[in-house]
Amino acid sequence: MAETRTEALHQNAEGLDIQAPDAILSSLANAQIEAAKAVHGAISAIAKAAEIIASRLNNGGKLAYAAAGSSGLMALADALELPGTFGIQRDRIAILIAGGDDAFKTLAGGPEDDTDEASAAVAAARIGEGDCLIAVSASGSTPYAVRAIEDARRRGAATIAIANNKDAPLLRLADIAILLETPPELIAGSTRMGAGTAQKIALNMLSTLAAIHLGHVHDGYMVNLMADNIKLRDRAARIVAAISGRDREDAARLLEKSGGEQNGGLDAAGAASADAAEKILEGTGQKLRPALSAIEGSMGQKASVLKAEPEKGQQGD
């Protein structure tokens, strides 16, 4: 096999093991920073991929992640946080990781070569037309990830590939190829470091932009977060208060009344009721900004009508 960029020796690696601890750590930190910069070259591809993800989720499809090893852990970290952060239903997210549940205990290398397991995982998740699959692999040639993207594409799903080596098979197979051309690792081939860092950043950017397209972000607020602990309930109340102009206690009361749903925020902003808020959201595709505009417009119209009516006792004067 020809040496790939992710397997090459870093230019500053010579004598690494006999350097002072501070020098080693400084080199490790600098290598991470350099790897992170690789994401800038992929912004256009990430933007296109986010549009596809948002479109598929908006039309009822699923989003699947397929990967092995440390790339699988990066995918797992992104996927697991989408429901809590953005309110995307858990049954709309599928995580296909080589080795299955055992990977969370051992992360053995062998399963990444198991293409039959990849095919079985895609079939079990029922990935197909209307869905989207993201395959992640530092080398871009991991058999598990390659087979997953092949099967997903054959089944009619949109496909996105993230890899750290140019011209990798995974990138050639995908509808959208996201190349993160990170430098060689300071520990040659240890892609849990620089390559993994770039993957984590790219995945966060990708899913966050998709969530913005779906209306789950308003200004800098996560307006569909799952408020299932004390910290998040407090955050939700502060978000509603900031957007609606109500005080925090009033916002918390309305959120509790609505069961923590987004329409509690619209109640605070002036919607007539929770049902009215839900109808407004349905009309705006669950997007908060146009919903708030609709409420402001209706309130302004009501105020102008009241102003135009003559006061009692003045009729016929």
Describe it for me?
The structure is a single chain. The protein has 317 residues and is an alpha/beta fold. It is 51% helix and 9% strand. It is built from twelve helices and seven strands. The protein has helices at residues 21-37, 43-58, 69-86, 115-124, 143-154, 169-173, 194-213, 230-244, 248-257, 263-269, 274-283, 288-308; strands at 63-67, 93-97, 132-137, 158-163, 176-179, 217-218, 221-222. The strands form two sheets. The protein has a five-stranded parallel beta sheet, with helices on both faces. Helix 6 links the parallel strand 4 and strand 5. Helix 1 runs parallel beside helix 7 and helix 3 (69-86) runs parallel beside helix 7. It is globular. It starts with 20 loop residues before the first helix and ends in a 9-residue tail after the last helix. The model is unreliable at 299-317 (pLDDT under 50).
Shape: globular
Q: Give me the side-by-side strand order of the main sheet.
A: 2-1-3-4-5
Q: Give the N-to-C terminal Cα separation.
A: 97 Å
How do the helices and strands follow one another from N- to C-terminus?
HHEHEHEHEHEHEEHHHHH
Q: Could you tell me the mean pLDDT? A: 84
Give the low-pLDDT segments: 299-317
Total beta strands: 7
Q: Characterize the biggest β-sheet.
A: 5 strands, parallel
The tally of helices reads 12
The radius of gyration over CA amounts to 25 Å
Question: How much of the residues is beta strand, in percent?
Answer: 5-15%
The secondary structure category is: alpha/beta
The portion of residues assigned to helices is 40-55%
